[in-house]
Amino acid sequence: MRVRIDEKDLINYPFLKESQNFVSSYSGSPEQFLTTPLGKAALAQAKERILSSIVGKSGQKSTARPATPTDSMGVKVNVSGYAIARVILSCMKDRLVIDRFTRNEAQKAYECLIDEEREKKIFVATSLGIDIDAATVPLVPYVELTAGMREERWRLVNRDIEHGMVKVKKNETDELLRECIRVTISRNLPLPVAGEICEVLGPIVKEISMAEQQHLLEQFGSVEETCFPPCIQALITALSAGTNISHPGRFALTAFLHNIGMSPTDITGLFCRAPDFDISRTIYQVQHISGRGGTEYRAPSCAAMRTTAICVKKDLLCERVTHPLTYYKRKKREGARTSPGPSGDMLVNRNAGSAHREKETGNSENVRDSRGQQQGEHDQEHNKKNQA
After folding, report:
1. pTM higher than the cut 0.70
2. Domain boundaries, the chain
3. Which backbone phi and psi does 308 adopt, to 5 degrees?
């Protein structure tokens, strides 16, 4: 029996090929489409789509699902909005925003599938290569699919494997389907987008970037090293003692400090005590991770830290989180100060490196945004980045 996919389904599952073909049937070239009334409405919808993923609880169940449009115009705006959102994200090249968007979109689609009629749910799952009735999953697809899943139970060492097939429980198939949707949405992002299109979308990109920075400001507040997770504290202690740290350790430390608001200059200063310190190379690497090349990187997850042997001296809070940034945010929120952090001289120019203490002083000329960029000193460079 053939399953019929109607326009409502295209809104719920915009990652399907049927949705892509639907958009292609009326949109034409992106440049022309964005100048039409439909294109402008879709652009506004795309912006709102990304903003909601930034400020919302990414990957968690929605509290209220908006009504699905039933008119042809509403359907086109929603489905086109998804496609344009992917273009905007590709112009931004911000991996943190991309991750939040893909998880939010996957959760919304998953919630629709839970309430979907069985035949349609099977159709969507099959389109993504998932058999929802299977008790096993081939080893290679399983590893590829669960690479981004954070719970320990998904690791191969905790699974039953027989003849190259990984056993899964009935309720786990739905979780694998949700992850498969996320992987499908994130595939190929960021896309190669013509510079002319990114220039047109520049104001939207800037607005979303500012919203993300404000959200991070609210999340992390001032830089407080006493709230750093043990792994980050250990890396800083090693540098302070004049010990070389591994390449994964340098990346994790740089990305973490950048994510919570330290400037590239202050991060670079931390590495000056390393025996193999090379200022030119260090500045280049720190600026690259901080986004000067157009892509900003997020600190690795706890699972990734364990894989690269950076996870050390776990405490009780480590057992309750899956990411160093989550540890830092929760430690600050709980006001815990029980474990000693690095000494005050480990972080170079602490007060200057704190994005948010400067904001509190009202010195608007030297306010660092939550990405650690000093606006008063780097406006020209910041503008070039937005245009890139």
Report:
1. no
2. 7-124+183-204, 221-387
3. -95, 15
